[in-house]
Amino acid sequence: MPPTTEQLTTTGFLPALPRNLSLLFPNPTHPPPIPLSSLPLPLPTTRLSTDIASFARSVLPAPTFNHSMRVYLFGLAILHHHLPSITFTHESYYLLSLLHDLGTTISDTALSFEYSGALRAREQLLSLGADVVLADSVCEAIIRHQDVFLGNETGGDEGGKVTALTAVVQLATLFDNVGKFEGLVNKETVEGVVREWPRLGWSGCFCEVLKKEEERKPWCHTSTIGVERFREDVKGNGVMNCYED
Description:
Blueprint: H1 5-10, E1 17-18, H2 47-59, H3 62-82, H4 90-99, H5 113-127, H6 132-144, E2 161-162, H7 164-178, H8 187-196, H9 202-216, H10 227-235
Antiparallel strand pairs: 1-2
Helix pairs in contact: 2-4, 3-4, 3-7, 3-8, 4-6, 5-6, 6-7, 9-10
């Protein structure tokens, strides 16, 4: 049987949102400080969540793991203040956050890291007992988490659609990586998250990942957004550079 609307909503397939993320915030309001204590913490504690967290910590370098945790918390902050009508489970987003950069650790494939990571993540989730719809939602969002809207594309002003889970992980990763959508997260919230999960030189680490991806795979998906331009944006992250170690 096909997934139900409820399954598609709780796992983050629905609602489908514009790939042009700026359309989600036509009149953004400056968010108040959100201390970590007011976010949905502690972290998800289901067996699946704890197993995936242990797996991610074992395979991801420390800067990448900390980035994944910041992506989770920044995403929650954005949801809390700006997108309260989106109702996927926090566990769905937690699993995605932990696994979205898994492909950067895989060197035995010619696939772009988004695709290799998505397939490996889906396999891992299913092996640990995840529901197929949940595993598929995480897989889809990993594949498309760098499918960012650049304008002047087919699909009109929206640039087509992405899943709700994809939209939020794009917002959080672009915020952490290049400082985009700066006004969506209060500075005090940023400071609290970075204090809990330090950057550990993340900008330099991610620039090196991008460089190696292009060198090994000149056809890589990241080339669609311009690897060198993206690296320059990461280096010039005016929001986060003051927190680099």
